[in-house]
């Protein structure tokens, strides 16, 4: 059984994307990525108003193990960055699909290569 919410879409870089509401989608990293990173101690998020491009880096996640790039799963304009995560990066580990979301983006174009929860589960198991 998947621990990844069925209503979300996933990238092969381990980000998740909610279905856009009024054109705005929420982005975070998966619990698989959070577990692999270890304890997240610093988050650099894209700035509100910045343009992000699908598949390109838009921030960083620093853990006790390493520093990892944050990729945007879609192209568009950042409408909100999660200040709670900036203030308490451990939310990425403790609640990756709830309070640990990273940013919201007004979607300009959603790529066709995003995975369903079932497809993402198969990807991380391979």
UniProtKB/TrEMBL annotation:
One of its GO terms (biological process) is glycine decarboxylation via glycine cleavage system. Residues 24-106 form the Lipoyl-binding domain. InterPro entries: 2-oxoA_DH_lipoyl-BS, Biotin_lipoyl, GCV_H, GCV_H/Fam206, GCV_H_sub, Single_hybrid_motif. Binds 1 lipoyl cofactor covalently. PROSITE patterns: BIOTINYL_LIPOYL, LIPOYL. Pfam families: GCV_H (PF01597). Gene3D superfamilies: 2.40.50.100. The modification N6-lipoyllysine is found at residue 65. Keywords: Lipoyl. GO terms for cellular component: cytosol; glycine cleavage complex. The keyword Hydrolase does not apply. The glycine cleavage system catalyzes the degradation of glycine. The H protein shuttles the methylamine group of glycine from the P protein to the T protein. HAMAP family: GcvH. Belongs to the GcvH family. This is Glycine cleavage system H protein. The gene is gcvH.
